[in-house]
User: Which sequence fits this backbone?
């Protein structure tokens, strides 16, 4: 297991997998509605993930929930950004997504995109690793894993101005 410097990503060498969580694609729209302009982060995420895939020679991306932000459905930004983002990444690696509490209707957005496996919020197991989001109780079989990976720790943004 390797934690990548300056990146919120774990690399599991034996699975050739990188693990991320809580992208909250579409959160920018919530800021926009409040008068704060933040550009879409999906392209930035795509670029960074592709760089890590290239650096690590990963064959799999595991997303531990909250791919999208809007609850319970999706907004226009998510409807456009998420399929494009996942489609681009799925051309590089297989993607496993554990549904998070913000991922309502995500299956609808990923339908027809190859190389993507969507797992319930209870998570999934691969070898001696358990993967889940964290808002729902994990499957019983995950408690027999040597390592557990959980998301649900939401991102934050610090905005500074001349006043501090």
Assistant:
């Amino acid at each position: 297991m390797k934690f990548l410097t300056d990146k919120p990503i774990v690399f599991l060498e034996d699975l050739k997998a990188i693990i991320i969580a809580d992208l909250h694609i579409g959160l920018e729209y919530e800021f926009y509605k409040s008068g704060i302009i933040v550009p879409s982060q999906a392209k930035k995420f795509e670029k960074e993930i592709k760089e890590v895939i290239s650096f690590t020679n990963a064959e799999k991306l595991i997303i531990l929930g909250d791919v999208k932000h809007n609850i319970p459905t999706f907004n226009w930004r998510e409807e456009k950004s998420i399929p494009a983002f996942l489609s681009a990444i799925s051309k590089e690696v297989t993607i496993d997504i554990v549904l998070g509490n913000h991922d309502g209707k995500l299956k609808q957005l990923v339908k027809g995109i190859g190389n993507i496996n969507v797992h319930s919020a209870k998570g999934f197991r691969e070898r001696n690793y358990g993967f889940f989001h964290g808002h729902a109780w994990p499957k019983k079989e995950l408690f027999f894993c040597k390592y557990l990976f959980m998301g649900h720790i939401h991102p934050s943004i610090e905005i500074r101005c001349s006043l501090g």
Observations:
- The longest strand covers residues 94-98.
